[in-house]
Amino acid sequence: xxxxxxxxxxxxxxxxxxxxxxxxxxxxxxxxxxxxxxxxxxxxxxxxxxxxxxxxxxxxxxxxxxxxxxxxxxxxxxxxxxxxxxxxxxxxxxxxxxxxxxxxxxxxxxxxxxxxxxxxxxxxxxxxxxxxxxxxxxxxxxxxxxxxxxxxxxxxxxxxxxxxxxxxxxxxxxxxxxxxxxxxxxxxxxxxxxxxxxxxxxxxxxxxxxxxxxxxxxxxxxxxxx
Length: 226
Description:
Helices cover about 35% and strands about 10% of the residues. It is an alpha/beta fold.
């Protein structure tokens, strides 16, 4: 019999988060998908998230707007900062300040409302471009925060932050997604995808994605601009 536990899944519309939703569904969770319109220049991914949530059988899909472009400080939210097309040393300018902290906070709020004890996020500590909020230390710290920062936590709910991709490389993530029947052509990972979802093929995210398909021995289904 299918497990009837409920989960909130952060869904960007990219390769990793789609795989995480597929994993949660395969594990028997009833999933409420949550996407964030945070002022990102690659907002075409939100259309992909809507398609993916429907195809993978999410119970609901919410898109919450948070104007991180009003804060700036990242090439993903500030058009005056160019998206790099070479790998950077250190934390790149595509890092969005406090993004995953905010995303998990919103997911935690939704979990309190829906009664979910489980939150899924597609962070990865290998192919993660050096972002500090993609590391196991961050996930562990936020899980502890959830227990002292919420009514549900104080009253005894044990929240679990699931990061099932955190120790996988991109090729392994792709293999796992394919095994779960994912159509990766539906996903958008590019940091500067155009309005129709076509990828640049040059940014960090595009290069990591393409290398992952090559390493997995799978044809890259990404839609690239000419």
